[in-house]
Every structure is written in C-alpha cells, then in structure tokens.
Write a structure and sequence with these properties.
Helix 1 (4-12) runs antiparallel to helix 2 and helix 2 (17-28) crosses helix 3 (30-41). The longest helix has 14 residues, at 44-57. This protein has helices at residues 4-12, 17-28, 30-41, 44-57, 62-71. The protein has a domain at 37-74. The relative contact order is 0.07. The chain is elongated and about 45 Å long. It contains five helices and no strands. 77% of the residues lie in helices and 0% in strands.
C-alpha cells in the first residue's frame, strides 16, 4: 500500500510529473493505462471504441450521450 505522502514525494522527485502520475494510474488500473497509451499515440479510433464499449457495458447509447454533450457547446 502506498500512502499519499509517498506518492506526492515520488511525483516531486521526477523530472516529468506527468509520466509519474500516468505510471501511478496505469499501475492501479490497466484499462486506464491502455487508454493513456492510446491517447499518447493519437489513436482516436481506439479511444472511441473504448468509450463505446464502456457506454454499452453501462447500458447507455454512446451516440445519444455524445450528441447531448456536444449540444452544450453550440
């Protein structure tokens, strides 16, 4: 078990805090690690498929939810 202060110290001691946080998240959740890697590669299709699968598992319609989300920016 890692305590919060140890996590903060680990991040502070890194030259790249973003990588340290990504490593912590990735170690805690392999799905998030995969999602972060897809984002770093610019794999938009992979990210979309991830989101569609996640919504399907929760019984939601991705296209409907995304359309509602985008309507907030019009």
């Amino acid at each position: 078990m890692t305590y919060p202060i140890e996590t903060i110290k680990a991040i502070a001691n890194q030259n790249n805090p973003q990588q340290a946080i990504q490593k912590i998240i990735g170690n805690a959740n392999p799905m998030m690690s995969n999602l972060i890697q897809m984002a770093q590669r610019g794999d938009k299709t992979g990210i979309e498929n991830f989101a569609r699968n996640l919504y399907r598992e929760k019984g939601l319609d991705f296209d409907k939810e995304f359309s509602q989300f985008m309507s907030n920016f019009k």
